[in-house]
Design goal:
- It is a multi-pass membrane protein.
- InterPro entries: MFS, MFS_dom, MFS_trans_sf.
- One of its GO terms (molecular function) is transmembrane transporter activity.
- By secondary structure, the chain is an all-alpha fold.
- It has a single domain, classed as MFS general substrate transporter like domains (Growth Hormone, Chain: A, Up-down Bundle).
- 71% of the residues lie in helices and 1% in strands.
- The chain has 23 helices and two strands.
- A two-stranded parallel sheet has the order 1-2.
- α7 packs across α19 and α12 packs parallel to α19.
- The radius of gyration is 25 Å and the shape is globular.
Length: 561
């Protein structure tokens, strides 16, 4: 495509993708000029339209390979949190400690999930997704080793916390990776398929662990996550960087070194990226807390997601006398609900694309991600009430398992809707938004196992589950409220992306001039010689008109990267 000529988006999805990238983040204060290559007036380095180095323009095959790799890496971490749960009785006998102390092997692992994202999410936004993944995942694999060979419970507890702390990076940052690569029309499907992995970990873990503990030592339940983690560390290390601000900053530094001129990434002209390093770190470390406690979106959705944790195998192992291995199979209907939720999310995304086309390609507000969450919010208390009173020993076990399907469906459907909603709402700060949500979710996940047995013992299985069902019922209106009032809430937000939507009556033909003009501005903000370099690289053998290079062209006017 000839640079500087008319550029139009041929489909509604392409227009929406372009409009979203053009508006995010808001660069209204960025000067639109070529610059002079000086500190006072640097050349601006931006993405060119269709540039293949831009992760949004990578092939679908490459995007899905990366998504599958990151999903499996998170599966290994989620698997490690629950695979040891069937071994708690063995650990009590081996270390001669109380059930509460031994349960900390699970709780402290999840506590690491709460504290780790406070560092890893903002660090990924400062230095990139890839270096954070390599550093943290390697340490996650290493800190699993002492638990498998420990001679005392203290070693197990400390190393389980550290494993969870370092393993939390992919759990939050992988959502940012998907936001980096996929457009608005693709993101829901990508997020739903990606999220199947970490949501499946707590389901697969107890099933595998239950059968392992019947046939081998409890230490093998710690060895399995170690082997899984080291394999995924090698594969994950092959994933390239996806975060656009880091990629453009590296390119600007390369151009500055090669030419002696001053180049700046378009992101570094924005106040959120141009602050001194110490200021950036301070902001980065407190941003998830700010999002959690000052942004109603993050706080209420975190509360909504985090009030529901069940100890389903307890119902079958203690009330029905099943073996640990067989009782672990109680998670399979929840897994079925998970698969149904993923299918429903993919189907709902077709509705999203139809509305996108009807809007002429104008980006839809994040609230369009919530209809499925509203449906799941109604089904969740129904599933919990049904499961509670069908779990009586005199009622056939198949009835309670049937009711656990809508429970699994609702939890996963809500999770997927919320994650996509947060990514759409915060875009460039998506990792911090997901981290703020993970903080509260993990804190409750840390506390819940410590009193689950006491709650089920004192209240009984039926009333303990009924209590959770009433909590779910009380939280049902939340997604409906966000669907109705979300735009007004985002308008008052410091970090949320503001969708600049033109009047609905505007026709598709009226959108094209805006797209054409903005592409030209993006090209104009890059120095002429580098703009041509980028066009030459994108041509891949296709004929293009040559343009004269300035005397400061990289590598003595070669015009190539």
């Amino acid at each position: 495509m000839q640079s500087g000529g008319p550029i139009t988006a041929s489909t509604s999805a392409e227009k929406a993708d372009f409009e979203e990238k053009r508006q995010s983040p808001d660069f209204d204060d960025v000067p639109v000029c070529d610059g002079h290559g000086t500190e006072a007036s640097p050349y601006i380095v931006r993405w060119e339209a269709g540039e293949r180095a831009n992760p949004q323009n990578w092939s679908l095959t490459k995007k899905w390979v990366i998504t599958a790799t990151m999903a499996t890496a998170t599966l290994a971490i989620a698997f490690g949190s629950s695979v040891v749960s069937p071994a708690l009785g063995e650990l009590v006998r081996y270390f001669d400690k109380s059930v509460t102390v031994v349960t900390l092997t699970i709780s402290l692992y999840v506590l690491g999930f709460a504290l780790g994202p406070l560092l890893w999410a903002p660090f990924s936004e400062q230095w990139g997704r890839r270096p954070v993944f390599i550093a943290t995942y390697g340490l996650f694999a290493i800190f699993n080793i002492p638990s498998a060979v420990a001679k005392n419970i203290e070693t197990v507890l400390i190393c389980r916390f550290l494993a969870g702390f370092f393993g939390s990076a992919p759990l939050t940052n992988s959502g940012g990776v998907i936001g980096d690569m996929f457009s608005a029309s693709e993101r829901a499907v990508a997020m739903s398929l990606f999220s199947a992995a970490p949501m499946s970990g707590p389901i697969i873990g107890p099933i595998v662990g239950s059968f392992m503990i019947e046939n081998c030592s409890w230490r093998w339940l710690f060895v399995a996550p170690i082997l899984f983690a080291f394999v995924m560390f090698v594969l994950g290390s092959l994933v390239p960087e996806t975060y656009a601000p880091v990629l453009l900053r590296r390119r600007a530094a390369e151009y500055s070194a090669r030419t002696g001129m001053v180049y700046r990434s378009m992101f570094d002209l924005h106040s959120s990226f141009a602050a001194p390093l110490t200021t950036k770190l301070k902001i980065a470390l407190v941003r998830p807390f700010l999002l959690l406690f000052k942004e109603p979106i993050c706080l209420l959705f975190a509360l909504y997601a985090d009030c529901f944790f069940g100890a389903f195998p307890l119902v079958y192992e203690y009330a029905r006398g099943w073996s640990p291995g067989i009782s672990g199979l109680a998670f399979l209907p929840i897994g079925l609900g998970t698969m149904l939720a993923i299918g429903a999310t993919i189907f709902d995304n077709k509705r999203y694309i139809r509305k996108l086309a009807a809007a002429g390609g104008v980006p839809l507000p994040p609230e369009e991600r919530l209809p499925l969450c509203c449906i799941a919010g109604v089904l969740l208390p129904l599933g919990l009430f049904g499961f509670a009173w069908s779990s009586l020993p005199r009622v056939h076990w198949i009835v309670s398992m049937i009711f656990s399907v809508p429970f699994g469906f609702s939890m996963v459907a809500m999770f997927l809707s919320m994650m996509t909603y947060l990514v759409d709402s915060y875009l460039m700060f998506a990792a911090s938004a997901l981290a703020s949500n993970a903080v509260l979710r993990s804190l409750l996940g840390f506390a819940f196992p410590l009193f689950t047995r006491q709650m089920f013992t004192k209240l009984g299985n039926q009333w303990a589950l009924t209590l959770l069902a009433f909590i779910a019922l009380a939280m049902t209106p939340i997604p409906f409220l966000f669907y109705r009032y979300g735009p007004a809430i985002r308008a008052k937000s410091t970090y949320a992306h503001q969708y600049k939507v033109p009047p609905p009556a505007q026709s598709e033909t009226a959108v094209s001039p805006t797209v054409t003009r903005t592409h030209s501005l993006e090209e104009g903000m890059m120095a002429p010689d580098l703009a041509k370099d980028r066009r030459d690289d994108n041509a891949s053998g296709e004929g293009r008109e040559s343009s004269q290079k300035d005397d400061h062209s990289p590598e003595g006017g070669s015009g190539r990267d």
